[in-house]
Design goal:
4-OT-like_dom (chains A, B, C, D, E, F), 2 helices, 4-oxalocrotonate tautomerase (chains A, B, C, D, E, F), two-stranded parallel ribbon, isomerase (chains A, B, C, D, E, F), 4 strands, Macrophage Migration Inhibitory Factor, two-stranded antiparallel ribbon, 44% helix, homohexamer, alpha+beta, elongated
Chain lengths: 64, 64, 64, 64, 64, 64
């Protein structure tokens, strides 16, 4: 039974509802299984590093 | 040194204390090791997908 | 940048190609991001437990 | 539905069968749930670091 | 593209900035890659088990 | 006790030895702890997706 762990940003419930629905459909179809688990980890931008920088700093710099 | 990552629901400290104690005992006995790490991720029901639905929606539907 | 970790079964390269393509599209669209990482862990049936049983044993029992 | 990820050593199928059975029982009892997923990652000693050393080197040193 | 998941304690933003910067440098140099993702999971002491005990209890006991 | 999970490429033992040594030093220094666990997952290029493509296909395309 595939388990999908999503390391993603904060999101509202409707976004997570759609994410679970659509990812489950893709996984079901491709792996030809019924039961699929999804776990969404919502990570603050200051807990994510992209190429050596905190995502929070990248976002702040873009907002200038 | 085995590390056990638990993707589970919210729980009170006594529950987590027992979870760590008993899972460590099982892992120690079976793998014949002493040092065991456990990390508990407490996931809100709206961050868990079960067969395409948010666990939060499944719980809400059952409460009718 | 979302990272998706897939704990799934063994699969051939074409299956994984499609899995990455379609999961990335869903994640891009929903999170409105461009960069998405996917890591596929291929787990043998004897390394997966479902409700207390090894998936390998469940499969063997179904084959009777 | 709790998912338990075990980062452990290589093990034979009987060991993994018992691990899944007993860990599932503990998780079921404590979280009061029925469905539990377990994923066992078997890691070679040269892929595990303990306090700065490869487990493979620690084992080799102990064998002297 | 390597992804590093850090299961660590609570930390302030400056600590996480340095962690991301220095871990990315090590990973870049050793794997000879440019793009590196880091995800920091900040775990409360009562969500971490060390050799069968909650880290929260170990800390409390040391404070006596 | 921090646990670092590295989702990276195949690597030889000397590379992994250095990775564990240097990452542990960074984590020890920054978190001011002694015990650090590292788990290295070696992922084949066909098990890694980067922006919708298999890393294996990106590598093949670059080799032309």
């Amino acid at each position: 039974m595939p388990t999908i762990i999503i390391e993603g940003p904060k999101a509202d419930v409707e976004t997570k509802r759609e994410l679970v629905r659509r990812i489950t459909n893709v996984v079901r179809e491709i792996y030809k299984v019924h039961h699929v688990s999804v776990v969404i980890h919502e990570n603050e931008p200051e807990n994510v590093g992209v190429d050596g920088e905190l995502l929070a700093d990248i976002i702040a710099r873009r907002k200038g």
